[in-house]
Specification:
Elements lengths: L2 H7 E4 L13 E8 L2 E9 L5 H10 L5 E4 L3 H16 L6 H21 L10 H15 L3 H7 L6 H18 L4 H13 L9 H4 L7 H20 L5 H9 L20 H16 L10 H10 L7 H11 L4
Antiparallel strand pairs: 1-4, 2-3, 2-4
Helix pairs in contact: 3-4, 3-5, 4-5, 4-7, 5-7, 5-8, 7-8, 7-12, 8-11, 10-11, 11-12, 12-13
The chain binds fe (ii) ion (FE2) (2 copies).
Length: 323
């Protein structure tokens, strides 16, 4: 078996999230090299009888990277979520550390989905991580500033997804939306671009502007995303509509339909603001990240027709005290 094939089947994990036992067991591996070929050697499993081994390793600390078989990804993320629950209930851990850990797990879920072709089933874990983030945010009264401190400033589809989810969540919490609405809004924010998994990978990661033809191909991520989410039968219709309508423009001219004003779902109108805000405040190989201030000026002056003006005003007001 060649190194490449082997490598493709294993995923690096954060062993810290295996500190707690429970749940379905799976094996943990480390990597060695023999005759120029990577080999994955079993280190332990998450079964209770192996927990001591994992615990000792965590106490002693290690520079070694650990891996799991790709088939166990869903189990790993369920495990990581449970482990986050334990972190959450520990009053001695600062909220900032808690949010950073949740951010890391959320990023991992989205990265697996977008970059490694992992089954969409993994998206089911996003609901629980977002729920924990909301708990953190509600207790800490963290504003956009607190959130922008942990969000990645480099644009990747997976970091962008988590960032938009978190901005949507902050908006929901800050504007005192009912809890269930905030939850759906943040989940929809995190999942708004899942349809990009159906667009050519090279196009998604292209360095530079898309040609007209490429842009046409990119547009399908809205309808494809809605199809994926509704096909999973576990997401509310509000979430699905965020995926399909987040590129519609308030004064018209957006896609896929060209809906106008309140025809566009409220959550999708909110999502559009967060989507553009994150895209402008993050850097890509061909463009610099803009400051929050410059971004808001552009959104208000040059892109005014794209957004619901009242929502944009609320967004700017909510961001204000933290700037
Ligand atoms: Fe999009
Ligand atoms: Fe987006």
């Amino acid at each position: 078996m060649g190194a490449v094939t082997e490598e493709g089947k294993f995923r690096e994990i954060n062993i810290e999230f295996l500190a707690k036992g429970g749940g379905e067991a799976f094996d943990i591996f480390y990597k060695t090299e023999s005759f120029g070929t990577d080999k994955f050697v079993k280190f332990a499993s998450t079964e209770p009888r192996h927990q001591e081994k994992v615990k000792r390793l965590l106490e002693e600390g290690t520079d070694q990277d650990f891996y799991i078989h790709e088939e166990d990804l869903f189990k790993y993320y369920s495990h990581a979520t449970r482990s986050l629950r334990a972190v959450m209930s520990n009053p001695n851990i600062p909220v900032k550390v808690k949010t950073e850990k949740i951010y890391e797990v959320s990023k991992g879920v989205m990265k697996e989905f977008f970059d490694n072709n992992t089954s969409e089933k993994i998206l089911e874990t996003s609901e629980e991580v977002m729920e924990m983030m909301e708990e953190c945010m509600s207790t800490a009264e963290a504003g956009f500033h607190g959130i922008t401190e942990i969000t990645s400033k480099d644009y990747y589809t997976y970091t962008h997804s988590v960032n938009v989810g978190l901005y949507c969540m902050t908006f929901g919490v800050k504007s005192k939306m009912p809890k269930n609405d905030t939850r759906e809004l943040s989940l929809g924010g995190m999942l708004h671009d899942v349809g990009k998994a159906k667009v050519d990978y090279a196009l998604i990661n292209k360095d530079g502007k898309l040609t007209d033809e490429e842009f046409e191909k990119m547009k399908i991520h809205t309808t494809e995303g809605a199809k994926t989410l509704s096909g999973m039968h576990c997401f509310a219709s509000n979430v699905v509509r965020m995926a399909s309508e987040h590129h519609e423009k308030f004064k018209g001219g957006g896609y896929p339909i060209g809906k106008i004003g309140n025809e566009i779902h409220l959550f999708a109108r909110i999502c559009k603001i967060m989507d553009v805000y994150d895209a402008l405040t993050t850097r890509r190989s061909y463009k610099k990240a803009l400051s929050a201030f410059d971004t808001l000026i552009i959104m208000k002056k040059q892109m005014a027709n794209d957004f619901d003006p009242e929502l944009l005003q609320n967004f700017i007001r909510l961001m204000g005290p933290d700037l």
